[in-house]
Design goal:
heterodimer, A: mainly alpha, 3-stranded antiparallel sheet, two-stranded antiparallel ribbon, 5 helices, 5 strands, 39% helix, 7% strand, rod-shaped, B: mainly alpha, 10 helices, elongated
Chain lengths: 253, 201
């Protein structure tokens, strides 16, 4: 009986929307625990009243602020999508470039590339039988330029240049650099440097080497026009027409 | 004049009608919903976070979320209930994010309760006493877990109906009463020194 009254009192405390029934008032007189609880509840309610009576500040948030932020967020969402699209596009382009380079690399490796040498414009081209180990001799050369002379390449001769097939020595490492393709050809070609260069080395597979160039055992590079100047013409021999072949000549020294 | 007329027309519409218009992108309807519920949302949030700046941030966030997700509002409950639920969820998120800050507040609370129970020579100004009660109450409230705090805020401070709280919390009225009872019990434990002091006053 006592327990049920205590429980009823507790339930009434939770509801607390109706005045206390007389039965509960009588119970409080008999039950010191519930009487203590009731006193505590009254103090709690008094405290709540104090707290609730404290002035509540008004919000200063304006509709314009919310509206502006809504618009900003909408733009951010659109912008975010745009960035994703740009990134996806860039990734796609890079992927296509990588695939293109790979295809080009594989197709280039099956070609045989020969290199032709010419000492200088119309003068003393080495014969096809000349050993590659022999430095190219120059019959005559233009007067030596000053120190400030640039290393500009000479105009290629219009006469057909003697070519020779070059076989890469097995023991020599190939030095590879990148050189812009001659006109009419897209992409980049591998290109070898002279012996003694500090360019990075790359080992090529024996059967898939894209370009076979040997390191020439010549003297150190000298300025253009000096007596020891030599010119290197690289000839790509896989061009079907003479015009393309002419364009494919690359001069160096 | 057109804008004024639109505002008057919006003012006369029910929440359901305004929500329907807002879903179609009617800015005036959104503004009317904002004006209707700005202060109630602020009161609830302010009771929870007890900081005006933070409360205003949360209020803005509540309406931003509400309008951005309005298309997902199925109107199975009232717009105000849905809005209050968003507000409570954001307050909970904020409370979790500020857990460290709350620990500092709790330490401060201990000091304040000590001050209340062992008062220095009494301050004669009644307002100062009320402010002290206010601060002591909130510092004790801050020591409660979030689910207890929400119950106290909604039922005892905002005096919401049990039915409304049940709709917001997506539970039964009986469940809410049980939660409120537990929350009050936990709060009274925290407030015990202050309540004792109140009894002596």
């Amino acid at each position: 009986m006592m327990r049920s009254d205590c429980k009823r009192f507790e339930l009434w405390l939770v509801e607390s929307e109706t005045p206390m029934p007389e039965a509960l008032k009588a119970h409080l007189e008999r039950c010191p625990t519930c009487a203590e609880r009731w006193q505590e509840e009254q103090r709690y309610r008094r405290l709540l009243q104090e707290v609730r009576s404290a002035p509540m500040p008004s919000t200063q948030v304006r509709w314009e602020q919310v509206q502006r932020r809504l618009a900003e967020r909408a733009v951010q969402r659109t912008g975010g999508f745009g960035w994703r699209a740009v990134l996806a596009g860039a990734f796609g382009v890079l992927l296509m470039l990588a695939v293109g380079m790979g295809v080009w690399w594989l197709s280039g490796s099956s070609q045989t590339i020969s290199t032709s040498f010419n000492a200088s414009e119309g003068q003393g081209a080495p014969s096809a039988e000349q050993s590659l180990d022999t430095p190219v001799e120059i019959a005559s050369a233009p007067p030596a330029p000053s120190e400030a002379t640039s290393f500009a390449l000479p105009t290629p001769s219009e006469e057909p240049l003697p070519t020779r097939r070059v076989k890469r020595p097995e023991s020599l490492a190939t030095q590879v650099a990148r050189l812009p393709e001659p006109s009419g050809i897209m992409g980049l070609r591998t290109y070898s440097a002279r012996g003694g260069s500090s360019m990075p080395q790359r080992e090529e597979p024996e059967e898939n080497a894209p370009l076979e160039i040997e390191i020439l055992p010549t003297e150190p590079i000298v300025p253009q026009g000096s007596e020891q100047t030599e010119y290197l013409i690289v000839n790509y021999q896989q061009y079907p027409t003479a015009e393309q072949k002419e364009d494919a000549l690359v001069y160096s020294f | 004049m057109d804008e004024f007329a639109t505002r008057i027309a919006s003012h006369q519409l029910s929440d359901e009608q305004l929500v329907a218009r807002a879903k179609e992108g009617d800015s005036a309807a959104m503004e009317e919903l904002f004006l209707r519920y700005r202060q109630p949302v602020f009161r609830l949030v302010y009771r929870s976070v007890q900081n005006i700046d933070e409360a205003e941030d949360v209020v803005q966030e509540v309406f931003l979320k509400a309008f951005e997700r309005l298309h997902s509002f199925r109107e199975q409950s009232q717009f105000s209930t849905w809005l209050m639920r968003i507000a409570l969820n954001l307050c909970t998120d904020r409370a979790r994010a500020n857990k460290r800050r709350q620990e500092l507040v709790m330490r401060e609370a201990e000091y304040k309760l000590d001050w209340m129970t062992h008062p220095e020579p009494a301050d004669p100004v009644q307002v100062a006493q009320r402010n002290a009660f206010h601060e002591a109450f909130y510092t004790a409230l801050n020591r409660l877990p979030e689910h207890h705090r929400q119950m106290i805020v909604m039922r005892d401070l905002e005096e919401m109906e049990y039915e409304e709280i049940a709709r917001i919390m997506k539970t039964t009225v009986g469940g809410v009463k049980l939660r409120v009872m537990r929350a009050r019990r936990a709060l009274k434990v925290q407030l015990e020194p202050l309540l004792r002091a109140l009894g002596e006053l």
